[in-house]
Description:
Blueprint: H1 2-9, H2 12-15, H3 18-25, H4 29-53, H5 59-68, H6 70-99, H7 107-124, H8 126-155, H9 181-192, H10 200-206, H11 211-240, H12 252-260, H13 265-298, H14 315-334, H15 339-346, H16 350-372, H17 386-402, H18 406-432, H19 461-468
Helix pairs in contact: 1-8, 1-13, 3-9, 4-9, 4-10, 4-11, 4-16, 4-17, 5-6, 5-16, 6-7, 6-13, 6-14, 6-15, 6-16, 6-18, 7-8, 7-13, 7-14, 8-11, 8-12, 8-13, 10-11, 12-13, 13-14, 15-18, 16-17
Amino acid sequence: xxxxxxxxxxxxxxxxxxxxxxxxxxxxxxxxxxxxxxxxxxxxxxxxxxxxxxxxxxxxxxxxxxxxxxxxxxxxxxxxxxxxxxxxxxxxxxxxxxxxxxxxxxxxxxxxxxxxxxxxxxxxxxxxxxxxxxxxxxxxxxxxxxxxxxxxxxxxxxxxxxxxxxxxxxxxxxxxxxxxxxxxxxxxxxxxxxxxxxxxxxxxxxxxxxxxxxxxxxxxxxxxxxxxxxxxxxxxxxxxxxxxxxxxxxxxxxxxxxxxxxxxxxxxxxxxxxxxxxxxxxxxxxxxxxxxxxxxxxxxxxxxxxxxxxxxxxxxxxxxxxxxxxxxxxxxxxxxxxxxxxxxxxxxxxxxxxxxxxxxxxxxxxxxxxxxxxxxxxxxxxxxxxxxxxxxxxxxxxxxxxxxxxxxxxxxxxxxxxxxxxxxxxxxxxxxxxxxxxxxxxxxxxxxxxxxxxxxxxxxxxxxxxxxxxxxxxxx
Length: 476
């Protein structure tokens, strides 16, 4: 699962999107990545405390359910599924645009080929998916490590033909923050969404045989990944290239390799970017299907989607997630540049909503655990509740800032519309569903029950059986 997290978080957003961040903030883009990385790191620490102290089969959607009731669990679960379902479509189109440089076929045909190939990998078995994702992730990691090594050697004058600029490019071209510190904060808003996917690590560690050590290790690994893959990579780029020469529509990784003079660097990096797109698509298919499967077990999705094959793969959940992708590809073909950009914009700030929900849930559940069952706290959030409040304030500040940044405004409003839509659907589900919404979390085999920590009084075993229905309470 650690490799799934790498696959989900290291993609075109880093390899290509970092160029736009550098143009916005200049060399100080490094600080934008540090600030966003710190918010993500502390958010994961808060999630890690809940994963260990309040183990659930429904991940952070169940934490929201325990903290704020079934409305919270339903809403964040479906929003998370929607984010990855649309991401599947977006990555399919992105992969097709890269393939179009090498294959003379219509874009929509290439998008379907990309989507079908990754769907098959997910449908065969979890093992095939894991092996595919492992190979993709290892290629990306190796590429980034090689990139960092070459960039540092060139900057220090240890590479053939290098003039050894050292740190001069960080300060010589209108200073370290040429557009001011407000631009650095604006870039932080954009950077935060590049870290989507890292939250999967704590979900996997929470279901491990040794959750305390697993979550602590996961959070630590996220820290060095953020440092290596993002902060160090951006630092190398602005050390090698004058920041104003970075083209926001062109991969700065390719630009650095071409500047250094490595033969065939452009083609190599294009292949790596394509692999990164496939990797994110692969991880998105896996994540969306598992979240939908959890929702079916809670009764928050039609139980017909719960079916698995003999290899334990939730086939129907996977197909529904890819269905969004197929529809999006057809819509893009019929109405180019109209409907599809709105779909992508609708997930633009869902990651922010997720992080805010995680911190808010930890404030509520953390206080309950400390008051009712302090023995559960084997992995603690530092300086609780003050640090969680600081992180929550930082995340909310980013949300407010999006309303004042023209390029981010549409994503914010579209995401808020998605939140409203999920809340409306919940009300429909509550009124017409065959069973009342579940107020308990999905149990984790071999772990202490969390029913005593749900909102309101603790429930008896009979209440648990009736309310959870063995996980079978579902829509008609």
